Amino acid sequence: MRLPYLAIIFSFLAFAAVSRASNVSYSGSAVTTRYWDCCKPSCSWAGKAHFSSPVQTCDVHDKPLSDFSAGTGCNGGTAYSCTNQSPWAVNDTFSYGFAGVFIKDHVEDYWCCACYQLTFTSGAIKGKTMVLQAHNTAYDITSVNRFALGVPGGNTSTSDACAAEFNVPQSVFGTPGVGVNSRSDCDNLPDAMKASCYWRFDWFLDTDDPTVDFQRVQCPAALTNITGCRRDDEHDFDSTSAAPKLLPLSSTATAILAIILSTSLLL
Ligand SMILES: *[C@@H]1O[C@H](CO)[C@@H](O)[C@H](O)[C@H]1NC(C)=O
Ligand SMILES: *[C@@H]1O[C@H](CO)[C@@H](O)[C@H](O)[C@H]1NC(C)=O
Ligand SMILES: *[C@@H]1O[C@H](CO)[C@@H](O)[C@H](O)[C@H]1NC(C)=O
Ligand SMILES: *[C@@H]1O[C@H](CO)[C@@H](O)[C@H](O)[C@H]1NC(C)=O
């Protein structure tokens, strides 16, 4: 008599997996912008999502801070973003990175520390892909899904925290809304930001806010090693696709089989 109960429980779990797969905003299309403000990222506060640890922050010397309650350097506090949460190219068509994220109809517990695979759909980098982790939240524009790519020298900010942190003039970060104007302007950035500033011109081809298709994926260690943040729901995603590990079709078939099995055993 035990088997039918197990079958019923299993079929329930299979249907739960199917209904989770129907949450369409795990994937979609979005716009991108660039940002780099040196502020403590929003996902660096405890309780922003169900995760192992908030996103790593750094002190004024770009060294990891252990106190997640420290205030942001953009408002008189001691916590800044760490310069290693910035993009790098694996090869000519694939890069890793970090972003401030906004996905419509959701709040930040939905994306903080989640990873997304982006496929660029416009401009010179059309067809290239990135996998990035949401280390921040982009609530400043909420009319559209958006990934604000963290790119040192890729934009300026009104708080001028980078200038304060690195004791350099704000002008080294370029023009408001644009950032540095050429690859050679990256030479003026603090050393820790130069490589990822060059990335914008070498890999990203200085594309002007390209659009993307995105899908949630399981975070690679290459990214979580840097932020120290892993979401509790990571096991629902695989490393190359937003689909749950049980494919909807196979889990539906399994559920139907389980029902047939349990019904026949009950009779
Ligand atoms: C989709 O996501 C929202 C927000 O996280 C959640 O409230 C809702 O239950 C999800 N829907 C499904 C079918 O999982
Ligand atoms: C720079 O940041 C501002 C504010 O978020 C944004 O409106 C603008 O589009 C950004 N610039 C680029 C090139 O993404
Ligand atoms: C680039 O790297 C990615 C990730 O490792 C890999 O899947 C892809 O095949 C590589 N592409 C080329 C052209 O080497
Ligand atoms: C992540 O960190 C662990 C522990 O330090 C290390 O063994 C592993 O190689 C790292 N993985 C990547 C992809 O950097």
TrEMBL record:
This protein's name: Cellulase
Active site: 37 (nucleophile)
Source organism phylogeny: Eukaryota, Fungi, Dikarya, Ascomycota, Pezizomycotina
Known catalytic reactions: Endohydrolysis of (1->4)-beta-D-glucosidic linkages in cellulose, lichenin and cereal beta-D-glucans
Molecular function in Gene Ontology: cellulase activity
Family statement drawn from the similarity comment of this UniProt entry: Belongs to the glycosyl hydrolase 45 (cellulase K) family.
EC number(s) given by UniProt: 3.2.1.4
Biological process, per Gene Ontology: cellulose catabolic process
